[in-house]
Each structure stands twice: as structure tokens, then as C-alpha cells.
Specification:
The protein is mainly alpha-helical. It contains 18 helices and two strands. The protein has two domains: 175 residues, no CATH class; 204 residues, Farnesyl Diphosphate Synthase, CATH 1.10.600.10. The radius of gyration is 21 Å and the shape is globular.
């Protein structure tokens, strides 16, 4: 497996910090740069492999490179890496672990591509979504059939390809097979929970029966699990055996911070700036997303505020002015303040669990900083 074109090379090693991983290279920017280096090399090699198989397939996969390398906060690999370093302070397998946790970005790309198809989203990270790009290509070429269906079909296949790439990057990371097999449970649980959360999100969007508690459950499965909680546990498992009290500490920390992350995402979806978030502000309202913020608003809104929300919620053609008015109604209802309070409470709970966890102090500091960055972000 070491001879696979996506395996390590001197180019990747030159970007990697030594086992200590501290200083500029060990901070959030340093980890992100190292992950970018791994992904750049790996995805380029994979597309070259596809080109030998079929030039048409390689051309179809090329936009994935832009999506994967064109943005993103690299939070998932960072939580995974520092989850590992928390229980393996010496970082004996530092570079191999970095490669393995970089695969979480490929899994994230899969989720984004499929999510955009399900949401019929027009943009992602400030650019047209993949299904839109391929629909436009179909229409411009004058091909037979429905352009939208073609675009959706290609995007689904490209999302599937990302899951294969994620597995391959983990498998070629250089870690012992026994370690990878042991860590597989966390990786698989993460994927299962993400699928479960996505289904519940779709279900409650259709049946309208979510409520705040159900919306929090969706946030836990769809976002908290695969953004913070499982990456932490996956990274720790890459060290080998992990003490139960560390697993429990990571579970409490990751669950709380992951939910806070999604709550911040809900707020940015209504109050953020499109130029910063890369997604149309108000899209969640127009799509009728049963987010925690939306459920809080419907539960707290006075009748007049409720009517202002109803004019927008689930209406894809709602005007910008109506969306702005609905956002104001959410604020007036007290739902925005309540969401902020929920974020603060979860961050406090998470940081307390982190402080009590028996892990390396440097990793504890890094994880605390990542937690704060993940909920204080503007995109």
C-alpha cells in the first residue's frame, strides 16, 4: 500500500511539524496548512489515477479538488489531531495520524455535496454547488435529458467518491493495521450518526413535528458527532488503547462543543453575511429547516411575530425584505438570545469536562482554543 500514489512524499513531510507539533505549526493555522498539504498531494494523485482510467471521469472529479481545497476551517482534522496528542503527547506517529485525520475533510466534502443536492442549494463556499455546475454544463452542451437530474446524479457520484478517497487516505496513512482497525469503530459510528441526523433533518422538515428537543437531537447527530465528538475519539483511538476516563471526557467535551458549533451555524444562517459565510443568508428559513433556532422562535414568538415567520418559512421565493423581517421577528421573540445562552452554557460544560480529562496539558490548551474558535466564528 505504501507505493500508492496518494502515500506520503517529501513534499508532505516538508510541511509537517516534528513529533512535538507545537509553535506555529502546532496551532490552528499550522495544522490547517499541514492538512491542506496532505489533501493537495492526495487528491491530485487520485485524479491522476482516474485519468488513467478515464479522462472523462477525471474531468468530472476535478471540481472536487476545488471544493476540498477551496475553503473550510479544517476543524475536524484539528480536533482529531489534538485528540490524538492528548493521549500521545510524544506524537510518535505524528505525520501518519495527521494523514489519517485529514481524511475527515474528504468525509466532510461527501456530506456537503450530498447535503447541497438534498437542499437544492445554489452556492457553497461562494461558488456554484457541484450539482448546479454539472446541470449548467449539460444545458450548455445541449445534451439529452433533464439538466437538473444530470447534475444531481453526477454530484451524488462525486460525493460517493469522496467516501472512497477518505477510506483510502486512512488506509495509506502509514499507521499499523491493528491501530486502524481499532479506530474504525469511532469512524463508522461518526458516519452512521451523520446519516441518522441528516434523515431526521429531512423527516422533520417534511412532517413539521420537530420541537426544540428533536432539533437538538438532529444537531447532535448531524453536526456535533462528526465535527467534534467523533473526530476527537477517532484521533485518540489512533494512539491505540485509550483510558475510559479520557473517552468519557472527550465524549462530554465533544458533545457539548459540537452542539454549540451547530447552534452558531444556525445563527449564521439567519444573521451572517453571505460574503463571509459563502452561503445565501436566509436559506435555512426559505427551505423551512427545523433548526434549533427556528424551533425556539416558533415556541417563543408572539402571534404577530409568528405570522412574520410564517410568511417566509418554507417559501423558496420569499423576498430578501421578508427574510430580514423574519430575522427581526426571531430576535424580538427572544430566540436569538436564547440560542446564544445555549451556546455559552454548552461551551462552559465542554471546557469543564476538558479541564477534568487526564490528557496532555498542551493538547488541552489547543482543544480549548479550538472550542472557542468554533463557536466565535463568522463563517
Amino acid at each position: 500500500m505504501a507505493a500508492h500514489p496518494g502515500a506520503r512524499s517529501g513534499a508532505t513531510r516538508s510541511r509537517a511539524a516534528g513529533p512535538g507539533g507545537t509553535g506555529a505549526r502546532g496551532g490552528a493555522a499550522g495544522i490547517a496548512a499541514r492538512v491542506d498539504g496532505v489533501l493537495d498531494e492526495f487528491v491530485t494523485a487520485e485524479i491522476d489515477t482516474l485519468r488513467a482510467l478515464s479522462p472523462e471521469v477525471a474531468a468530472a472529479a476535478a471540481p472536487l479538488r476545488e471544493l476540498i481545497l477551496g475553503g473550510g476551517k479544517r476543524l475536524r482534522p484539528a480536533f482529531g489531531y489534538w485528540g490524538y496528542r492528548g493521549v500521545a503527547a510524544g506524537g510518535e506517529h505524528d505525520e501518519a495520524v495527521l494523514r489519517a485525520v485529514s481524511a475527515l475533510e474528504l468525509l466532510h466534502a461527501f456530506a456537503l455535496v450530498h447535503d447541497d443536492v438534498m437542499d437544492a442549494a445554489a452556492t457553497r463556499r461562494g461558488a456554484p454547488t457541484l450539482h448546479r455546475r454539472f446541470a449548467e454544463r449539460h444545458a450548455a452542451a445541449g445534451w439529452r435529458g433533464d439538466p437538473g437530474r444530470f447534475g444531481d446524479s453526477v454530484a451524488v457520484l462525486l460525493g460517493d467518491l469522496c467516501t472512497v478517497w477518505a477510506d483510502r487516505l486512512i488506509g495509506t496513512s502509514g499507521l499499523p493495521a491493528a491501530v486502524l482497525l481499532g479506530a474504525r469503530r469511532e469512524y463508522d459510528e461518526m458516519r452512521i450518526e451523520a446519516v441518522a441526523g441528516q434523515y431526521l433533518d429531512i423527516l422533520h422538515g417534511a412532517d413539521g413535528a420537530a420541537g426544540v428537543g428533536a432539533a437538538v437531537t438532529v444537531a447532535r447527530f448531524k453536526s456535533a458527532s462528526y465535527t467534534v465528538q467523533r473526530p476527537l475519539q477517532f484521533g485518540a483511538a489512533l494512539s491505540g488503547a485509550v483510558a475510559p476516563d479520557v473517552v468519557a471526557g472527550y465524549d462530554r467535551f465533544g458533545g457539548a462543543v459540537g452542539e454549540a458549533f451547530q447552534l452558531r451555524d444556525d445563527l449564521l444562517g439567519v444573521y451572517g453575511e453571505t460574503a463571509v459565510t459563502g452561503k445565501p443568508v436566509g436559506a435555512d428559513l426559505r427551505q423551512g429547516k427545523r433548526t434549533v433556532l427556528a424551533e425556539l422562535a416558533f415556541s417563543l414568538a408572539a402571534p404577530a411575530q409568528h405570522r412574520r415567520l410564517d410568511r417566509v418559512f418554507g417559501d423558496p421565493d420569499a423576498s430578501d425584505a421578508a427574510v430580514t423581517d423574519a430575522a427581526a421577528a426571531i430576535t424580538e421573540s427572544g430566540a436569538r438570545a436564547e440560542a446564544e445562552a445555549m451556546i455559552s452554557a454548552r461551551v462552559s460544560t465542554g471546557l469543564a469536562a476538558l479541564a477534568a480529562a487526564p490528557i496532555d496539558p498542551v493538547a488541552r490548551d489547543r482543544l480549548g482554543a479550538l472550542a472557542l474558535a468554533s463557536v466565535q466564528r463568522l463563517a
